[in-house]
Amino acid sequence: MITLSEYFMTILITCMIVNLGLALYGVFFKPNLIKKIIALTILGDTANTFALIIGYRMWVAGVPSRPPVFTEWRSNNPLLLLVFTKTAVDPLPQALVLTAIVIGLAVTLFLVFLTLQAWKIYRSVDMRDIKRLKG
Amino acid sequence: MRRWIGICVLILTILGLSFVVAANINTLVPTTNVRTLAEIYLKYTYYPWDKYFTAMSPEACTSIVWDFRGLDTVFETMVFYLAIIGAIALARGVPLKLPKEIKRDLGLSLIVKTVTKIVPVLIIAVAGSIALHGHLTPGGGFQGGATAAVAPVLILVVFSQFYLLKRGVNKNSMLLLRSIGLTGIGITAFAAVLIGLATGHYAFVLQNQPKPLAPDVSLPAFVGGQLISGSLWFFNFFEFLAVAAGFTIVFLLITLPEKLAEAKEEKHVVEVEEG
Question: How far is CA A116 from the centre of its chain?
Fold first, then answer.
């Protein structure tokens, strides 16, 4: 028998795999360039959530995880630091996801400007129209 | 036909991925073995008993981003600004200039405008707090800068582009602010090396606290009793300036009036015909 948390985790992962598929569908098959960019951002966010799940778990049974911020630093107490080390969530995926979000944002901005340029030149953001206009 | 093949391939990919995850749930989902690295980072993020390994910042994410993996973040910042430079280069024909006559009734209604006169001040204050407390609380330079860039967007939508341009928030002033931020990041990255050169000791690029091979050079963790975590505060501050200014440029360029875009398009067509 699975527990409730396992059940919710399965639902979460299944939803995210479906999300991944939908985003890939949008990137590959939507003819509108803006919709392609929206699908690309959903794809990036799904990948980031997968990375976060690795770190965001209950590491000590029965003790809820806490954010990776050592709030009792003024006390200079090594015991509190040990408790923090054992129960805080993994900060490395969060830091990597922060990097990924920044670079994803930069790529999105660049793609939006490319689309704007395509609209200025071809008066359309539809891939089928732009294909017809080439030459 | 091609479309159906593609959809079938996608469905098979999703089903296959789900099957792989479900069949190997014990091996594919990382076990607690991944915890070793996290424990090292969490232990040494604020560890005043051993100055050689700590970043002296209670916020583990900021210490990873700007100290433990600092070089990574510097290159990430480079990618970010190369993309912004690419966007500016693509929009090089956009004239960000004030027209001779500005209509008085630009923008949304009086109620929205009155509220918008108050809200950007609060947004900037919150953004500054996020950025300057980045080494103490969740947040940092990038998050603060992205928050601060919401204020110009709000003004752009509610008033107009001319409202910002009239008050000196144009492409050149924002480029200047962005360059100040990037130069600050560069100077902070080389600060320890410069101190080492001046005092005749070894030091590393992106060094924050003393290291075993460079024990004599360090940036101060406390200034006047306040924890600033050495270089982390400066990195956050300059990143805040650079990100806020970079986003403001992009939003200014992307909300160009449609008439200007059309005028540019006609000119472009003429150029193409001549060529």
Answer: 25
